[in-house]
Amino acid sequence: MCCLQFFLGIAAFLVNMTLARLIALEREQIGLLKAIGYRSFTIAWHYVKLALIIASVGTLLGWGLGAWAARGMANLYAEFFKFPFLLFQDRPDVFAISGLAAVLAAVLGSLQAVKSILKLSPAVAMAPPSPPIYKKFILER
Q1: Is 0.90 topped by the overall pTM?
Q2: Which of 102, 112, 103, 107 is nearest to 20 (CA)?
Q3: How far apart are CA 84 and CA 135, in angstroms?
Q4: CB–CB of 31/125 below 8 Å?
Q5: End-to-end CA distance of the chain
Q6: Which of 74, 64, 137, 60 is nearest to 103 (CA)?
Q7: What is the percentage of the chain residues whose pLDDT exceeds 90?
Q8: How far, in Å, CA of 117 to CA of 58, rounded?
Q9: What's the gap between Cα 6 and its chain centre?
Q10: 90 half-sphere exposure, CB direction, 13 A CA radius
């Protein structure tokens, strides 16, 4: 169970990083949409839907490739260990739980990045971002 949580945490982190960079690139467009009357929630929901689509496509691919690989492993075990029979079952509950976990990880990963849209005012969003503050290291002093 710990490995699954670790994997889903990394997936949420990657979704967060990707959406945060995408939002930073589209900051001026977001400000323009807010200025012409779009609500922050509508714009944020657009980015959450993007994360949901990506998670759904990944889930469908994972289901298909995972079932194919599991059948192959079951056949390999049956041949290698000379089992008289080995049943492989596609259980819908396992597919449902894995799909729910993937979608939940994507949504949780997107919420932190999308939260920045809700705080952004149109005037600030249309201005270029302020440059980062750099500090000198001890060796540079």
Answers
A1: no
A2: 112
A3: 68
A4: yes
A5: 48
A6: 60
A7: 45
A8: 25
A9: 14
A10: 8
Q: What's the half-sphere exposure (Cβ side, CA atoms, 13 Å) at 96?
A: 3
pLDDT tens, position by position, 61-112: 999 999 999 999 988 888 888 888 778 888 999 999 999 999 999 999 999 8
Is-contact 78 86, C-beta < 8 A? yes
In single-letter form, the type of residue at position 17 comes to: M
- Scored b (16 or more CB within 10 A) or e, 8-47 reads beebbeebbebbbeebeebbeebbebbeeeeebeebbeeb
pLDDT of residue 46: 94
Residue 126 has pLDDT above 80, yes or no: no
Pairwise CA distance, residues 25 & 69, whole Å: 38
Strand, helix or coil for residue 85: coil
